[in-house]
Design goal:
Length: 376
């Protein structure tokens, strides 16, 4: 099965090959500076890749700028700030924010056994019971990337065929290879299970929590698990790595790990909230949501080499490098069969960047990191 994210080492290799960071003083014309930064990174990328198109959204102190490249559909329609894309594993950061929110409300604890909140009374294997919700959120549970008993065809892995019961039954038979906490192992199934624990602990469905706690307060009207017919008309066409049209990404039983569709406009709202803005689009961000987002971004442990970064709850936080003047950056990537995307937070500059490419296996978060670093 295709992973929902680029591997950390591949991403950092892309970053090492990138152009050097601009070092000039902040210009008076912010829009021109942002445009230059985006052009510096994206022009070279679009010339050297075969990607059909891309959308870049940049927020600087809450002021937004959008840039589009190539085409969003096979008929030649361009990307716009309101074009929907599959954001894949960026979805995980929504789930870990909801988890952190439930922790702050005393509904679930970071260090308790995951058995406590298993739905439907399902009994876990003895060693699996030693795993904690926080280990699921930070990829230290040892749970595999995806369930190991999936059908071979992508379309047969949708929740209609490989059901929630199938997923949770697989979880109930899972035996960790080593006692948790395990070494870093990226896991869609782990975040998927975390969402079921949070649902059971709060008594509310994931979509209900997502809408009530994050999407609606931030005015993210186009962030959906199941887009409406009107939104589907604005969905970009995804492409496989070979350029062929990709199948629409299914809704899996672990949808909270990678099922959302969104737009550059919505993702900048999300980025601004994660930067800690008190208001987004003129609306106040609930204080407890801000705290939960900050908690989800807090580094937990160092990632294995060659990555010079810390793992948080789904988020990755790069190490600062004072010698070269590089500040720490927080990011998350997402990949589906036809899209690559990344949300990037530069807290030091109060910059959020969202990049989406309508082709699989592209270094979208690496592009976003370089754009953020090029903006004075």
């Amino acid at each position: 099965m295709k992973k929902l994210c680029l591997s950390v080492d591949v991403l950092f290799a892309a970053l090492c090959a990138a152009q050097p960071v601009c070092a000039q003083a902040p210009p008076a014309n912010e829009e021109a500076a942002v445009r230059q930064a985006v052009s510096t990174v994206m022009r070279h990328y679009m010339q050297t890749s075969k990607a059909p198109g891309a959308i870049v959204g940049v927020s600087v102190h809450g002021r937004r700028y959008f840039f589009h490249y190539g085409q969003a559909t096979d008929t030649g329609a361009p990307f716009t700030p309101d074009t929907l894309v599959e954001i894949g594993s960026n979805t995980k950061t929504f789930t870990t924010a909801l988890f952190a929110l439930a922790v702050s409300r005393g509904q679930i604890a970071t260090d308790e056994s995951i058995q406590k909140h298993m739905p439907d009374g399902m009994k876990l294997q003895t060693l699996a019971q030693k795993a904690t919700p926080l280990q699921l959120a930070s990829f230290q549970s040892g749970m595999p990337d995806d369930p190991t008993n999936l059908p071979p065809q992508l379309e047969m892995r949708s929740i209609e065929h490989y059901t929630t019961k199938d997923f949770l039954t697989w979880v109930s038979h899972w035996k960790p290879a080593v006692p948790p906490p395990a070494p870093y192992l990226y896991s869609n199934s782990g975040i998927g299970l975390l969402s079921y624990l949070v649902m059971n602990a709060t008594g509310k469905g994931w979509e209900e929590q997502l809408n009530n706690e994050i999407v609606n307060p931030l005015g993210m009207k186009d962030t959906e698990l199941r887009p409406t017919p009107e939104q589907q008309q604005r969905l970009a066409r995804g492409h496989l790595k070979n350029g062929n049209n990709a199948p629409i990404w299914p809704i899996f039983a672990w949808y909270a790990a990678g099922g959302l569709r969104s737009t550059a406009r919505d993702m900048l709202s999300y980025g601004e909230a994660n930067l800690g803005h008190a208001k987004v689009q003129g609306k106040p961000v609930p204080a407890d949501v801000t705290r939960a987002m900050q908690q989800a971004q807090a580094p937990i442990y160092p990632l294995p080499p060659p990555a010079k970064a810390q793992q948080a709850m789904a988020w990755v936080v790069t190490d600062a490098d004072p010698a070269s003047g590089l500040a720490s950056i927080t990011w998350k990537d997402g990949g589906t069969a036809g899209f690559s995307s990344g949300i990037v937070l530069h807290h030091g500059k109060d910059i959020a960047v969202f990049v989406a490419v309508n082709e699989a296996s592209q270094p979208a978060p690496g592009l976003g990191i370089n754009i953020a670093r090029h903006i004075p």
